[in-house]
Amino acid sequence: MRFVFAAYNCSSDFDNPVKWLQRISAYVGIFESLAKEQEVISIEQIDYEGEYFQNGVQYQFRKFSKTQKYFPMQLHLIIRKLRPDVVFIQGLHNPFQLLQLHLFSNARVIVQHHAEKPFSGIKKKLQRLAGKYVDAYLFSSHEMGMDWVKKGNIVSAEKIHEVMELSSVFSLSDKHCARLKTEVTGTPVFLWVGRLNENKDPLTVVKTFVKFADEKPSAKLYMIYQTEELLHEVKNIIRETNMQASVILIGKVEHKELLHWYNSADFIVSGSYYEGSGTAICEGMSCGCIPVVTNIFSFRTMTGNGSCGFLFSPGNENELLSVMRKAYQTDMIIMRKKVLDFFHENLSFDAIATRISQVALSV
């Protein structure tokens, strides 16, 4: 089959195809795995025009005018010319454009959810209408997809398929070597990777970890973050509890360096109220980190409903403290193996590509 991947957004701040593909490596790996068995073409919109080939995938880089954002005729003409068997559209927030795609291509259409939330009003009606021309919707969690059905934005539950949206370029390495690079110490080590915003809820995680560290003084929490919305509040908790030696604020880290941090940690922790999937959790699991995460749609799926991780209700400090205690008592060698096995079978690039092929053949 010939797959053509496309999206309706442009990243004009990139003008180098190699750097762009590095930027979206969590998705590129899916293309490359799929290309082992299928023909894969990806249309990318950055400030560059030309073709680029990498690991069996043909990338067509295109620059379109601003009007193409809402009336993407040029993109749709390119898709029609490529004569795909499957058009794979990234994102659910462009129903008006999807309706136009129908006029240019009779290929099967698969749409991948990327953390978008259901529209309301007239845009909701457009999402419902566009669904007539969509053969399959991919969500990281089937429950999340069914939530769109219950809210009426997607009409057919039969079109919902559970397929992870991204994976990890990282893998397990020697923990001792990793810790020499990161200078991480502690037993056990919890790692936070994510923004310090209200949705990620670092305050619940830090408040709870402080209590846990009172019981287990050797425990450490390292925090890596790209934005600092709640940094002041986090620092206040650490200062007021005199936990500067137990909660270590790292700040920004280059993405490639995260490999060493994930391999230095025992647990990857998240307090999120909502995630489309969970990039940091996926990356951590690929390196053997045991998830301690909120009991939300995506994380339930990513942990096999808690079979290879620990779940707690968002914002619930008592539950998180109980979970941290339980995690501390678990056989980490056995649980780490469960995590790695689950990742390779369900969350890896090859696993995702296999599922996409299966869905494409079924519609």
What does this structure look like?
By secondary structure, the protein is α/β, with parallel strands linked by helices. It folds into 2 domains: 2-166 and 349-362, Glycogen Phosphorylase B (Rossmann fold), CATH 3.40.50; 175-347, Rossmann fold (3-Layer(aba) Sandwich), CATH 3.40.50.2000. Helix content is 40%, strand content 18%. It is built from 15 helices and 14 strands. It has helices spanning 17-23, 25-34, 73-82, 95-101, 121-130, 142-150, 175-182, 202-215, 231-240, 258-262, 279-286, 297-302, 317-329, 332-347, 349-362; strands spanning 2-7, 39-44, 50-54, 57-61, 86-90, 108-112, 136-139, 160-162, 189-193, 220-224, 247-251, 267-269, 290-294, 310-312. The strands form 2 sheets. An 8-stranded mixed β-sheet has the order 3-4-2-1-5-6-7-8, with helices on both faces. α2 packs across α15 and α4 (95-101) packs parallel to α5. It is globular and about 65 Å long.
